[in-house]
Amino acid sequence: MTVYSAPGSDGAIVNYESRYDHFIGGEYVPPAKGQYFANPSPVTGQDFCEVARGTAEDVEKALDAAHGAADAWGRTSTAERANILNKIADRMEQNLEKLAVAECWENGKPVRETLAADIPLAIDHFRYFAGAIRAQEGTAGEIDDDTVAYHFHEPLGVVAQIIPWNFPILMAVWKLAPALAAGNAVVLKPAEQTPASIHYWMSLVADLIPPGVVNIVNGFGVEAGKPLASSNRVAKVAFTGETTTGRLIMQYASENLIPVTLELGGKSPNIFFEDVSRLDDDFYDKSLEGFSMFALNQGEVCTCPSRALIQQSIYSDFLAAGVKRVENLKQGNPLDTDTQVGAQASNDQLEKILSYLDIGRQEGAKVLTGGARADLGGNLSGGYYVQPTIFQGNNSMRIFQEEIFGPVVSVTSFDDYADAIKIANDTLYGLGAGVWTRDINTAYRAGRAIKAGRVWTNSYHLYPAHAAFGGYKQSGIGRENHKMMLDHYQQTKNLLVSYSPKAMGFF
Amino acid sequence: MPATRVDVTPAAADMMRQLRGQHGPLMFHQSGGCCDGSSPMCYLEGEFRTGQSDVLLESLKIDGVDEPITFWMSASQFELWKHTHLTVDVVPGRGSGFSLEAPEGVRFLIRSRLLTEQELVELS
After folding, report:
1. InterPro entries from the entry (chain B) (predicted)?
2. How high is the ipTM of this complex?
3. Which among B29, B34, B107 has the least Cβ separation from residue A266?
4. How far is CA A27 from the centre of its chain?
C-alpha cells in the first residue's frame, strides 16, 4: 500500500504550477482578457491552481499558430511523425507515476486506476498510432490499361478537439494521437473541470513537438469552446460529451460544411445469462467483478455498465453475490493505492447523481446498497464522494434510461434470450454492452444482436488500442481507439492519371 | 394553478434574470448522454436550432424577464421523461458544454418528481 502525498504538499512526487496560461505556438501565453478561474481538486474540494479563462481572441491566436504550423507538419514524413509520437510515449513512460498522481489529484479517480489503466493506455495509444501511420498505404486502382486511380492520404489541416473531464489525459490522447499521426495541427480545449493535468503532460513533452502543432486553450465552453467549435478556420471538430452539445457542434459544423466526430455516451446493458452461475469457479468470480464494474472510475465512464440485466432463474442468488461484492469495494482517499472508488469529478456532478438517487426512489426503485453521499471524514469531507449504489427496478424508469455518470447500477431481470435483447436495446443509446455466458453461441448471437458499438464479451472496461470504440444510435459518430480513426483525420486525394498519349475522342 | 411540466427555483430564476440582463433572451435544451448529460443547457434564444425532433415542454415566465424562456427536450428523450415533473435549480459548479451560466461558477440542475395522475390528465 502506498499513499501518495497530495501535489503541492511535503513529499509530493509531482506538483502543479500555481497558474496555467494558454499553450499557443510552443509557449505559454496569458489570456487576452487577463482572467483566470480556480481549479479545485475533487479529493478535498480545495482549489490547487488557477487556469486561463480563454475567449475568442485566445482561440484566434491558437488558430493562427496552428495554421502557421500545419503545412510544414503535414509534409513531414510518417517516419518523422511516428518517431515523435514514440518519443512522447517514452517520456510519458519515464514519468508514469507522476502523471498518474497528477491526474488522480485533478479528477478524483483512484491512483490505482491511473497507474494501471489511464496512463499506460495513453502511452500505448501514441505507440499504436506511431505504428499505424507507418504502415498506412494509399492504393492504386487500375481503371483500365491506360488509366490509374491513385489514392493518397492527406491531413485535414487544423482540427479542433474538445476533451471531457472523466479521463483528462487519456481522452486527450485518444484524440491527439490519430490527429498528429495523420499530420494535422490541433487546437485542443480541455474540460473546465480538469484543465490542468494536460498542461502537466505538456510540460513533459513540449520540447518534442514543433511549435504550433499542439495548442491548448483553456476556458469555459460558452467562452472558449464555442468560438473554437464554430470557427470557419477548423477542418474538423472532435467532441466527447453529451447530446445537446453534440447537436450544437453539428449545427456549427453544418454552417462551415466540415465533418465532426462525436462520442456522446450511453446507457450500457451488462447481461448475465443463467449459465454464469453453473459453477462456482474463476469465471463466476470474474462475472461478479464484471457486475461491479459500474463503480469503475466512480461510474464516470461513457460505457459505464449502468444497467445490469440478470436472467430470472439466477436473479436472487447472483444479485445477492453482486451486492456483497460491491459492499466490499474500498472507497477512500484516491491517492491511496488500495482505494478502488474515489471522488466524483465536480460538485455539480455530485449534485446530479444525488438528484438521480432521489428520482430513482420516487419511481419505486429499491436501493439494495448505497444510495447516498459518502462523508469520508477529515480533509476528505469537502470532497465529492458517492456510495456505490445498486438499484432494483425496471427498464422504463429514468435511472435505467439516463446515464447518471455516477457509481450507480440499475438492475432488472429477464426471462430468456429474446427478452434480454429486447431490454438491452430499449434505450436511446448504443455505445457499450457486456455479455456474460459460458455458451459461445449465446455470446456470439447476443453480441451481434445488441445495437451498440462495443460489446464486451465475458469482459468489461478494457480499452486497448486497436479495438474500435464508438456509438450506435444517439451515442455518436465515428470510431476512436483504432486505425480507422485516421480516416476521420484525413482527406483522400485521388490522382486520376492517363498513361495514353491518344486523344480521348470526345472533341 | 394549472399543471406545469417545468418549474424553476427562486435561485434559478435569479440566475436567469442575471443571464437575461447580460446576454439577451434565453432558451433551455435538456441534454442526455454522458459527461454533462442530463443537465439543462441554457443558450441565447435561437442559438440552438430546435426542429421536429424536439418538444417544447414549457414557456417559462420569469418575473423581471419580458419574454418567456422556452424549455425544450428531444422528442425521444421526452418519451422517457414525460411522467416526471422537472424543476430547474442551480448549484455551485461549472458544468461543461456551452451553457451560459458556467462562467458564473454555477450550473443549472434538474430536480425531478413524479407527476400526479391529475397533472398527467391535465397535461395530456
Report:
1. DUF779
2. 0.97
3. B34
4. 27
CA distance B60 to B56: 11
Annotation: CATH topology of A19-264: Aldehyde Dehydrogenase; Chain A, domain 1 (3.40.605)
Question: Is the pLDDT reported for residue B124 higher than 90?
Answer: no
CA gap B28, B31 in Å, rounded: 9
CATH 3.40.309.10 corresponds to the domain A269-457: yes
The three three-digit cell numbers of residue B92, written as one number: 455551485
Would residue A27 show up in a list of annotated catalytic residues for this protein?
A: no
Alpha-carbon distance of A299 to A403, in angstroms, equals 9
pLDDT digits (tens, 9 = 90+) for A31-57: 999 999 999 999 999 999 999 999 999
Domain ranges in chain A with CATH number 3.40.605.10: 19-264
Residue identified by cell 499513499 is A3
For residue A47, list chain B residues with Cβ-Cβ distance below 8 A: none
Cα–Cα dist A181/A88, whole Å: 12
Cβ B93–A266 below 8 Å, yes or no? no
In the beta sheet, which residues pair with residue A261?
A238
Cα B2 to its chain centre, rounded Å, is: 18
- pLDDT at B96 > cutoff 90: no
Overall number of domains in chain B: 1
Average pLDDT score, chain A: 97
